[in-house]
Amino acid sequence: MTIEELDKIAETERTAQSKYQHHVCVCIAAGCLSSGADHVRDALKREVAESGMQNEVLVKGVGCMGLCSAGPLVSMETDAAGSTLFANVTPEDAPEVIRGLDTGSHGLKHCPTDVPFFERQKKIVLENSGRIDPERIEDYIAADGYRALVTAITEMTPQDVIDQLLRSGLRGRGGAGYPTGLKWSTVAKTGEQEKYVICNADEGDPGAFMDRAVLESDPHRVLEGMAIAAYAVGAQKGFIYVRAEYPLAVKHLKTAIKQAERLGLLGNNISGTRFSFHADIRLGAGAFVCGEETALIASIEGKRGTPRPRPPYPAEEGLWGCPTLINNVETFANVAPIIRNGAGWFAAIGTEKSKGTKVFALAGRVENTGLIEVPMGITLRDIIYDIGGGIPEGKQYKAVQTGGPSGGCIPAPHLDSPVDYESLARIGSIMGSGGMIVMDETSCMVDVAKYFMEFCMSESCGKCVPCRAGTQQMHALLEKIAAGQANASDLALLEELCELVKSTSLCGLGQSAPNPIVTTLKYFRKEYEDHIAGADCPTCHTAAREEATR
Amino acid sequence: MQTYLGPPQLPSDDKRWKIVEATARRHGREPHALIETLHTVQETFGYLDEAALRFVAATLRTPLSRVYGAATFYHFFTLKPKGKHTCVVCTGTACYIKGAPALLAALEKRHGVKPGETTPDGELSVLTARCLGSCGLAPAVVMDSAVMGKIGPEEMLARLEKGIRL
Hints:
- The structure holds two protein chains of two kinds.
- Chain A is an alpha/beta fold.
- Helices cover about 45% and strands about 15% of the residues of chain A.
- In chain A, the strands form three sheets. A five-stranded mixed β-sheet of chain A has the order 10-9-13-11-12.
- The termini of chain A are far apart.
């Protein structure tokens, strides 16, 4: 496959698509699918067939459009009227949608796209999401897909590719923020031997669904990124470790791999060069700890997913003892645009130390929930109040939780801090993989801390004592506090345990498990004290009363 | 005396074992295929019983202890058959904040089953999911395969009665 051949495929696809006057795109990613988007798509197709408009209207299923709370979403592009977005579409609305194509009049619920939710976003990772059919490689190629891969392997040396990544300033999107180019060059420097590339798609944070959306909406983008990485570091084989709980993502990935192999964009001697790359899928089996890289490697090897001490880092000794590059889904999804548009373009977005954009799964007590992509450096306030539309039902904002069970709760006084790796760390939380849960006055922070600790406790793999026993003890103390049976010495013990588990655990799970407690203690200490003093926790109390009157 | 070194005999002439065999064969019967093979067993049989674990161990030439270890380590695998109907309550953070605990409490009160348990008559299994990724619809429940979002305890119980007729 050469650039010219790619151009030809893209051209054919664009011509085929431009034959249709109307493009009706139905979001069939997980969020909308669970509100019945597949039925909407089928009803629309049936309606088009019945009204004999097959040659004018193209109905296609596409990936996530972002505003999951208003699903199922249907976007309509017509030559005449431009693009319109409809919310909460039902299969019964199909005739209305199709009838309105020519007249432009609809009795349906319009979803304005000139609002901050759409306008404040900056899409790189999600640029194709909601636009292309994830099950058709031609659609991806028509959106400049695989150009970066072909360019990299035919015109650039592996070192050139790594230099681009280094200059772009891209950092790992899994949460820790290690510079991607640096990781690649470590693996590349291990010399000529068997190496692997692994895509970490074991998205375990409760309340996070970014990787899922990317894989469901634009799987080729991730494969392209992996192939470029493999070329840069000198690997020939790659694995995508994806959760078994994401059947649609797995299905789209499988289709994508087959299609790319058929066109010679994956497999042996890609583009007639000496570079070969084979990608394969490995299913996770529901263990949060497998998001940790050494545990993930153990799982691919068919073992229990328990971590091992580092060093040696996987970059030197990873899968089956070979040098292994592990990056997150979103990191790989950033690679192709960087190669295509240049490192300078990417580095111009974001802040000094955190370049580019970040995808967040915005959820909880906020008006607009869904998937968003924002430039680094945007403030939390802008995300929650502008893009998110604020807190519903006139309630008061209390905290935002980033980074899932490894992150922290950020209170109102820090709403103006920018979203980048360093700033979030400074206020006690982490960037994390991208879960962002907003909480209002009805959430008791002791309860929230207990929730996360329960999660860490049941997900602890049991290999090291501080995490296995420490999370149990911390959870027991939190239960005691929540029940109003604790005293001041329990609180002191809890703080001591936090410090101990944090500094002595083997892997990231244990080291970060105390974070939700540490931040809630730091910012909402009074709520703990209220529980201890036996005084009524105003939050739990109201919550309980609401429950009773429901 | 000659020792038989080929692949082990299938536990029964149930055709589903051949599917399991095929997964093991595709991975060259290497021990690293353990999790993939267990996935196939669970997909075809619904759960992992002792016969299955023994067969997988023999097929992949892996100690039974390791097979059992992996099967019990990963939450996705279950050693017990599920009920005729399943009700999965999402307990992701967004659903938790929006009322998943009340849903679980209602299920326990009405049907007497905690998460992970099945009613004695084998009709209903109650499960929890870490996150369905449907956070926009919180709190979310999956009944058999239908996802229901923004649902309260009464409505959920009513839908269960209707769908399952317990």
